């Protein structure tokens, strides 16, 4: 359980940092600045640390929510933000489906009858079903 949580946290951190690096590169090349509306310095006088923290902040908010509106992408950063937001909406569903797929035995009904002889099992599910059916007789 802790291993799965650690892997999930590292995966999300990787996604956040990867998109933050993309935002930083787009900001540096002036293809798509990410503007913090409450920042006192101008875009030209932006320090590198401000670019990094603003990009990380915007990346986290875009992945996990819709955002607050205090940081706005422009140019190509808007397209990247759309991709990241879509990824942030789809990823939890994919993880839940994958978890459910891995945690339950794979049972497929061949017909609409509830006859145990008509069940098809894959992998270790056959031995699980056999041990379950033997204990419930």
TrEMBL record:
Transmembrane region(s): 7-28, 80-100
GO biological process: monoatomic ion transmembrane transport
Keywords, alphabetical: Ion channel, Ion transport, Membrane, Transmembrane, Transmembrane helix, Transport
Coiled-coil residues: none
Ranges where the record places region Disordered: 116-137
Domain of life: Bacteria
Span of domain Potassium channel: 18-96
Keyword Acetylation: no
Pfam families associated with the record: Ion_trans_2 (PF07885)
Protein name stated in the entry: Potassium channel LctB
Organismal lineage: Bacteria, Bacillati, Bacillota, Bacilli, Bacillales
């Amino acid at each position: 359980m802790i291993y799965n949580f650690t892997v999930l946290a590292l995966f999300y951190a990787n996604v956040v940092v990867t998109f933050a690096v993309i935002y930083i590169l787009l900001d540096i090349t002036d293809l798509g600045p990410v503007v913090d509306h409450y920042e006192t310095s101008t875009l030209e006088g932006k320090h590198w640390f401000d670019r990094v923290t603003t990009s990380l902040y915007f990346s986290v908010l875009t992945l996990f929510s819709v955002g607050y509106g205090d940081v706005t992408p422009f140019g190509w950063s808007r397209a990247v933000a759309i991709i990241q937001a879509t990824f942030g909406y789809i990823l939890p569903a994919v993880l839940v489906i994958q978890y459910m797929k891995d945690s339950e035995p794979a049972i497929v009904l061949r017909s609409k009858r509830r006859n145990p002889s008509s069940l098809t099992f894959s992998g270790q599910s056959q031995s699980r079903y056999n041990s379950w059916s033997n204990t419930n007789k």
